[in-house]
Amino acid sequence: MGEKRKKIDPKIEFDNSVHEEINNKLKRNKCMYEGCTSNAIWSHSISRSISLGEIARNGILLSPKSERAYPNKKYFIDEIGYRGASGFFGFCEVHDNILFEELDNHSIQTTMDIVTQLYRSVNYHYFNDSAQLIAQTRPLERLGKWDLALNAINKNKIYLSRLKNFQKELFQLMHYHDYLKVTPNPLPMTKSKISNIIIFYKKLNFQVPIAINTIYSYGSNNEEFDLFVTNIPYKDSTDFLMMIDARYYNYFNDMLNYIFNADINILNYIERVMMSSEHWWLKPEIYEQFSEEKKRIVQEDLYCYAGLENEYDISIFDDIRYGLITGEPQFDHEREKLLSSLPERAPFEKRKNNMDYEIVAKILRSKKLVFERDV
Ligand SMILES: [Zn+2]
After folding, report:
1. Alpha helices (H) in 71-110, listed in sequence order
2. Range of the domain at 31
3. Ligand 1 center to residue 103 CA distance, Å?
């Protein structure tokens, strides 16, 4: 009719088609409980009633979002409703109720609660990442890079089979009635090796107002292995959990023992996770009280700080940090993050270009890479 069609950027159109494909796949998910064939309902991997609800404001949390225009991504922090926060089509109504009733009523009390929570966490990743298989390979196919696409598909298959192993291990442990006993806090390292996995757990007696359910894949000597990180805030406490395959204990030993050595180290680690992961949901007031400059730097760092090698040099949770270091002279250096002005950063475009180069270099070298599962 002579109407001028709105011109859509072909890159964005392509992205939209990939996302539609992913969403269609996700909607068809069956219950992930072994042997069950019922349809899955939408539920949360972190309890909405006693955790997300405690940090949300009118059902709203903050989470990193990305604008996609392959192969580039732009990150920013934005509002997210309850539904999206840690949600997935994981289990049918019956299993969702039976398995996670305890976790929706109280914080972690027993070793069984730990095992059940990690089972929920792993399934969230399996659900998301199995769909990401599509997203990861489509851009490569589009660019005609068939060998890279094939390589990515293979790597993802191996990754998903690792997740399956964690699922199986945790599934078996969920039937071990000895775990109904009250769990030691923190779970001592020597006792945390259960079956073929090692779990690190600590209950903090204060709230760290961010929910996290993320996974990192590490690479060393042509092997890849995973580290799960879950943080669950409650009204006045926090459950912090990490899990690895026991075969890679030596690789993570020093790092994990350091983190669990002091509450301030856990807080620092949580801030590092924030800057290198997309799977977190933050109490809005924490970010809103930042100055405009701090907001800008933090959002830019979301793109540039993917390394996880260093502690983040900006304090996110000022009040908690202050509380943890007061009267603890050995942590005096932490005070600098509270007092000093914001660190200088190179111009964003320059950092971004370096980062893009680094990412490509890492993929090509495929050596010691540390990354969150993502496209
Ligand atoms: Zn089921």
Report:
1. 93-100
2. 10-372
3. 17
